[in-house]
Design brief:
binds zinc ion; alpha/beta; two-stranded antiparallel ribbon; six-stranded parallel beta sheet; about 375 residues
């Protein structure tokens, strides 16, 4: 009888323990989710007075505290440009010493910081610009490298947030790279803690840039080897040869194989008809049939339309279309000199996207794929 009682006790006890364990498990999972959500809101970038006083100029991301409210100072495009006067890049030597200072100051420093300050003079200039919000000082005491200009991202900078809306994810995509600007784009993405997608073609002597895209956590994807419409769209066979060539090259320099692609000109391009009539109809079937996933875009920054389109125009193009979609896929280009303004406008674009309640992510094989099916 006792034994039976004990047995019954055990049978009751075990499910009870399991239930409690299950509840604890659920609780910690949801707690982790809340933490993740909170950290998703942490693009406020601030620097403490002490860091500023000793001239280290570190960038620190801190969790958004409820008491601080969810709204920060509204940043307009004009604000962004005033906060980020373009200056000559620091010389290599200064840049290196500033890196040392930065990493000594805090392990949270991002690579963007190294560009931010390298001398006390520059620091003072930046501080002045921030506190008085007057005309940006572009005076630099650095030995200038005239052709190489970089955006100077401020140390103390608050951006406007609303809590991310459910299922609203924006995809920043950069076509035709890598280029001389890739590193700078990567620095800006790091600064905002954003991952993006690069649809690359073959460029000579840029192996380190393909590798940097991958090493810094972004998606590298295929955009054909030559991007030469005449070659790419000559035939179905030619198209797949182009894909294989760029895929093999990417693999050789990064160790990554990808099946994510973007057609030069998009799947709706009509130029390809000149080289092979109706080839897009064929490719839109055979590409998925061979296990590739193609992505068009639904928000065009317009940077392909002109050489160095005005930043205000680029931003306006994104603002005009972003909110039409839960999953906006934003087309930009990483092609060097003619797209300098794309780099300049990127911070404003990212901040606008954040201000509209979107998170940003890189494309994966499972991501929603925008297709131009018209
Ligand atoms: Zn392209």
């Amino acid at each position: 009888m006792d034994e039976k009682k004990q047995e019954a006790g055990v049978y009751l006890y075990i499910p009870m323990v399991l239930t409690v364990a299950f509840l604890i498990g659920c609780f910690s999972v949801s707690l982790a989710a809340v933490r993740r959500n909170v950290s998703g809101l942490t693009a406020d970038v601030s620097v403490s007075q002490s860091d500023r006083a000793d001239g280290r100029g570190t960038v620190r991301r801190s969790a958004l505290k409820e008491s601080e409210g969810l709204r920060y100072r509204m940043v307009s495009a004009a604000d962004v440009y005033e906060l980020r006067p373009r200056q000559a890049a620091p010389s290599e030597k200064d840049s290196a010493s500033s890196t040392e200072n930065a990493s000594a100051a805090t392990t949270n420093a991002t690579s963007a910081t190294t560009n931010a300050t390298s001398t006390t003079e520059e620091k003072n200039t930046a501080t002045e610009a921030e506190t008085t919000a007057t005309e940006p000082e572009t005076v630099s005491t650095q030995p200038a490298e005239p052709e190489k200009e970089v955006l100077v991202l401020p140390n103390d900078h608050y951006i406007n947030f609303i809590p991310p809306k459910e299922d609203h994810v924006a995809y920043l995509t950069f076509d035709d790279g890598p280029s001389e600007y890739t590193e700078e784009i990567l620095d800006i993405l790091d600064y905002y803690d954003v991952k993006a997608t690069f649809f690359v073609i073959y460029h000579k002597d840029m192996a380190d840039k393909y590798k940097a895209i991958v090493d810094r956590g972004h998606t590298i994807a295929l955009h054909t080897y030559t991007h030469n419409y005449k070659k790419v769209y000559r035939s179905e066979k030619a198209f797949f040869n182009e894909l294989t060539s760029i895929s093999d090259y990417i693999y050789s320099v990064t160790g990554v194989r990808t099946k994510i692609i973007r057609f030069p000109g998009g799947s709706s391009n009509t130029v390809s008809n000149y080289y092979c009539r109706d080839i897009m109809k064929t490719l839109k079937k055979s590409v998925p049939a061979r296990g590739y996933v193609y992505h068009d875009w639904n928000v065009d920054s317009g940077d392909a339309a002109a050489t160095n389109l005005a930043p205000e125009k680029l931003l306006a193009n994104v603002q005009a279309r972003l909110n039409k979609y839960r999953k906006p896929d934003i087309l930009m280009h990483d092609t060097g000199a003619s797209k300098r303004t794309t780099v300049d406008t990127l911070p404003a674009i990212i901040e606008y996207i954040y201000s509209q309640g979107y998170t940003m992510d890189k494309l994966t094989l499972d991501s929603y794929a925008v297709h131009h099916d018209w």
